[in-house]
Amino acid sequence: MKIESVEGLILTETNYSESSKILNVLTKEHGLIGIMSKGCRNPKNKLHGVSRKLIYGTFNIYYKEKGLSTLISIDIINSFSKTVMDLEKISYASLILDLTNQVVKQTDSDEILELVIDTLTKIDEGLNPIALTNILELKLLDYLGVAPSIDACSHCGSTKDIVTLASDSGGYICKDCYNNEPLVSEKTIKMIRMYYYVDIKNITKLDVSDQVTNEINNFLDDYYDRYTGLYMKSKNFIRKLNQINKN
Ligand SMILES: [Zn+2]
Q1: From the CA of 228, how far away is ligand 1's center (Å)?
Q2: What pTM was computed for the model?
Q3: Per residue in 67-102, pLDDT tens?
Q4: Which of 51, 234, 40, 223 is nearest to 137 (CA)?
């Protein structure tokens, strides 16, 4: 085994034996890898504070191509400390880690880590977590090979007179193809394209009305159910959380 430094984000942590954890880490260099953090559940161990989900850093490891690598130390780049202290932020961050873990099993694109880090950074800085999660969800559909049709009508390809957005049609619907699908606001039709094309790094504010947020969120929930085969249990938790906040 050789010592290597890799840049990565911890997606999941699983207890192992008496005092250790196995970390599932999305790395720039090797994609998703398993890393054994020996003894880290002992509070006196130097790996204790850093062997948790959402830690982003440079991992110094004994790298093993097949099987588990072994952690030596982590130099933290971002621990997303504000997110960890906030129930709403951590709920969305957990959903993002859960989604990322499932998506990277289906595609080996090395762009995903950067997209996810950009999203988590903006959530940590205090920008609208639901809108940011939706932006990431929309962008990840591309890597799953099921991007929606939001440049033109999903039926006829026309770019004129788009009247609504429907997941069972796969995206935009124009006036001529409209067949009593539920209508969404004009703002939602425009905003979802902005979500798709925006560079997350460049977002400095995200003022989105509740109506637009709900319409885009509902579209994406339904779209994921229909076309991706992914199931996120953290989504149910967020739905419950949103209901509590509304009451
Ligand atoms: Zn059409």
Answers
A1: 24
A2: 0.93
A3: 999 999 999 999 999 999 999 999 999 999 999 999
A4: 223
What's the sign of the alpha-carbon dihedral 49, 51, 56, 59?
A: positive
Q: Is 184 exposed, middle or buried (0-12, 13-18, 19+ CB in 10 A)?
A: buried
pLDDT at 165 over 70: yes
Q: Residues lining ligand 1 (ion), CB within 5 A?
A: 153, 155-156, 158, 174, 177
Distance, CA 143 to ligand 1 centroid (Å)? Answer: 25
Band (pLDDT 50/70/90 cuts) for residue 247 is: low
Q: How far is the CA of 211 from the centre of ligand 1 (A)?
A: 25
Instruction: Give me the domains of the chain, ranges plus CATH numbers.
Output: 2-79 (2.40.50.140), 82-246 (1.20.1440.120)
Taking the centre of ligand 1 as the mean of its atom positions, its distance from the CA of residue 16, in whole angstroms, is 55
